[in-house]
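Appendix C reproduces, verbatim, an entry submitted by the partner laboratory led by Prof. M.T., so that reviewers can inspect both the input and the predicted structure.
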Amino acid sequence: MAPPMDSSDFSKLRTVEPISSDPTASPATTWEKFKQAFGMLVEVSKNRPISETVCLREALIFGIPGSFFCSMAAFLLTTNRIRVFQAAMLSLPVLSMGRFTQCRASKFHERKATILVSKMIRAKMLTDGTAKQAEFERLFKKSTVELSELERQLDEIISKQQTGAD
């Protein structure tokens, strides 16, 4: 029998949010829309190391040198110490949050593409040899333009994974 847990033990536990099976589903309420729009910021506020937060490390690696170069450019243009400090302080969060947002958006689109491909494979497996096979193939042929773009994006993802780039 396990010993009873006291309230200090609960602070050590992490909560895990369930992953929605369809990230493209529209939220029902205004609050859900707000949570979905700012969901990427929730990851940062979970008190985890930077290396475990998706895209945050990359955003800081991009933002810190970018801030340095912005401050150097401000120094070359104005030679005013206050302006240099302002340029550094303003460019760091702007560059970091811009890169963080772009990275999270690309991860979201990669995940959507993965879900779409898995649904297509599942539909193909379920319709092979049935009366619905013609309907699936007609639907598949109708979306060849979108699929060629999806294939290009998937090729990029595969090449990035094979080369070790993130």
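Residues 30-163 form one domain. Additional entries are available on request from the coordinating office.
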